[in-house]
Amino acid sequence: MDTGTQDDADAEFVRFWQERRVCFLSTTRADGTPHLVPVGVTYDHATRTARVITSRGTAKVRNVERAERPVVAVSQVDGRRWSTLEGVATVREDAEAVRDAEARYAARYRQPRANPARVVIEISVRRCLGTVRPAHE
Question: How far is Cα 106 from Cα 99, in angstroms, rounded to an integer?
Fold first, then answer.
């Protein structure tokens, strides 16, 4: 594949993850069943990091914190175009990480409401699936 094609595929992938749309986060419950919820997701292609802002105490946070190796997935769809990001999740609650995630969320969606219990689920993306994905996948 030539460089122009790779650049085009990566640009389309990045745009797809910048367009405003509801996404879904899949975590695993203690009994092994999937927990799937709608969320807002931001994605930083340079660092391959996806972020979900949420409140401490939610099922998704408990699922990530409880898992020995919390592998999760976030997905979005637009007609026949779809993309899934899979990776290992970490819950961050430090002020700097939360502020950064809120700013990213505001850029893709809208300014989030104030939430003193806010945390960030950061996903270190290991695999991209779908009809819209980077050239190297």
Answer: 10
Q: Residue 62's beta-bridge partner residues?
A: none
- The pLDDT tens digits of the residues spanning 60-80 come to 999 999 999 999 999 999 999
Q: What is the pLDDT of residue 1?
A: 38
Global pTM exceeds 0.90: yes
Residue in 100, 104, 98 with CA at minimum distance from that of residue 54: 98
Query: What is the C-alpha separation between 17 and 50, in angstroms, rounded?
Result: 10
Give, for 36, the enclosing helix (H) or strand (E): strand 34-39
How many beta carbons lie within 10 A of that of residue 14, not counting itself? 15
